[in-house]
Amino acid sequence: MSDRIPWPLGLVTALLLAIIVAPLLVPIAMSISDTPYIVFPPEGFTLEWYVAVLTEPEAQSALLVSLKLAVVSTIGAMALGIPCAMALVRLRFPGRGLVQALVLGPLVVPLIVTGVGLLQTFSLLGLRGAFLQMWIGHMVVCIPYVVRSVSGALATADPTQEDAARVLGAGPVAVFLRVIWPQIRPGVAAGAIFAFIISFDDFAISMWLADARSFPLPLYLYAAIQRFFDPSIAALSALMVFFALGLVLLIEKGLGIGVRRIAS
Amino acid sequence: MNTTRRALLGTALATPFVKPLAAQQREISVGIWGGAQGDYVKRQIIPAFERDFGCKVLPEEGFTLANVSKMRATKDNPRFSVMFIDDLAIPIAKAEGLIAELPWDRMPAMANLYPRFLYEEGFGTALGISLGGIFHNTRVRPPESYAELWEPRYRGKLKLVSPNNTPSMFFLIVAAAIETGKPFAEAQYEIDKAFDRVAALRPNILNIFGDGIQAANEIAQGQADIGLVEYSKYIYPYTNRRAPVTMAFPKEGSFAGTNCQVLVKNGPHQDLAVAFMNRMIEPAVQKGLSEFALTSPPVSGITFAPETARWIAYPVEEMDKRGLFTPDWTYINARRAGWTERLNRIFSL
């Protein structure tokens, strides 16, 4: 058996990669153009658009809001999603199918509908505070990703090992930390990454719930597209691409979790 | 060390939930537009208003239909005090009880408002008027008549505004005017006869655009020759910066795109909201806004330097001279959903 990839498969893979990567390279190329408006291919070379974006207080504030929102939404989604997944996989109870359908519902319902529904609900409840509203809204859409990935990991974990640990005297916490956690760790990591990215990139929910104090980056990008005619918008897009790449590298090298392992 | 890190992390994460001290003062939320107008409102008008009234104004950028949806969703417990929407949405907002009548006695700046820019018997005022027409790359000679756009020489060279955007209704009126040979004012009532004409334009359409500024950018790069139909407020600020894109107004006439403000019914701090709306139509504020965003003011008594005057239609006599047409939005709104659906069917793949 040879490890070499058959050439037709390699060709298709290369083509797919080109289709996926090429659109990401275009804004990077346009962002260095030394022209007062966006052109492709770029003309001249300058980094002034990056400086313009990075020194723009609104962009900095929007980035900070998005990062905080993504972090707290991920933590919240994990705190609720992991126990939910464990209950759905390990326990049998009346209405289990209904609970599963409700938890995964936000994956099916268009986000724009979820967003307007949340706005109406918060308004009726008299709940103020855009960040708090967005936090709840983002958790609603992040939890299904955590539940799905953790459920998948739990389904492949051997429950008899948990029984064996209990028989040998391990308490519930010890069973979770020493038996379950090592087996579901890749699933939890995958869920966390998905939750973070879904929250960080979210537009549809934030569009309804954000206010001027809590204005996340995707909304700022949309507003900036309407405001900037110059390549600074391309520079901002390029920075988001670099950020995503940096995140993957951090996970791979910094946390020692292989993205390929998560993907598989 | 770990405790300190945790404490710092906890503080950083908790910060967004804590109401800042500044929020103790009175504050209102105002739904504004994006683009150059929104930029000027946020950076110039609001800071001065906050200083003068000792309050906080929270501007939220949006667009007409989303802003109306936000008012609907929060109708029982309004979050916004003032909302910026286009003229076409004011009858809808009034009919649904989303907006309140403006108190004339507390808005002295209304004295300068041209009567035509007061809507629904006092439920909204205009803030800026854009010219609706076609935009083109400066190396391309624009058509003298809209009818020329159907000619084969434009095959695959036009960008058409998305059926979801309001200027698509202007396009339908244009098509009806070409089909019937009637002026816009009469043709708008015969749009149903124009859909074969609309479909005949399909070979000339390169693609559909949803964002006017991005479309202007693509026209400037030469990806297409002409875009139709769009507001001057999205194009002229860039023409003014020497980008190779500008507007043209074929002989059939041009459209008025009127941005307005409304008072949200039962919104927080109505007194501040009214003061803010009054500030928005004060001549000094209108002059600055018009010079920055290159829109025409709805109030009288402003003098513009030639470098601004060349981009706008002002005063009201100049608007009339240019034949700025405002559609019968009550008639169009009632039929818009069906027409949008037909447009989507024609231009979908």
Automatic annotation (TrEMBL), chain A:
Chief localization: membrane
Swiss-Prot/TrEMBL GO biological process terms: transmembrane transport
Pfam families: BPD_transp_1
PROSITE patterns noted in UniProt: ABC_TM1
Residue stretches spanning the membrane: 7-32, 69-89, 101-119, 125-147, 188-209, 229-251
Domain ABC transmembrane type-1, residue spans: 63-251
Entry annotated with the keyword Transferase: no
One GO CC term on file: plasma membrane
UniProt keyword annotations, A-Z: Cell inner membrane, Cell membrane, Membrane, Transmembrane, Transmembrane helix, Transport
Subcellular locations according to the entry: Cell inner membrane; Cell membrane
Membrane topology according to the record: Multi-pass membrane protein
Sequence similarity: Belongs to the binding-protein-dependent transport system permease family.
PANTHER family: INNER MEMBRANE ABC TRANSPORTER PERMEASE PROTEIN YDCV
Protein name as annotated: ABC transporter permease
Native source organism of the sequence: Falsiroseomonas algicola
TrEMBL record, chain B:
Gene3D superfamilies for this protein: Periplasmic binding protein-like II (3.40.190.10)
Gene Ontology terms: cellular component: outer membrane-bounded periplasmic space
GO terms for MF: thiamine binding; thiamine pyrophosphate binding
Keywords attached to this entry: Signal
GO BP, one annotated term: thiamine transport
Stored PANTHER family: ABC TRANSPORTER SUBSTRATE-BINDING PROTEIN, THIAMINE-BINDING PERIPLASMIC PROTEIN-RELATED
Protein's recorded name: Extracellular solute-binding protein
Taxonomic lineage from the root: Bacteria, Pseudomonadati, Pseudomonadota, Alphaproteobacteria, Acetobacterales
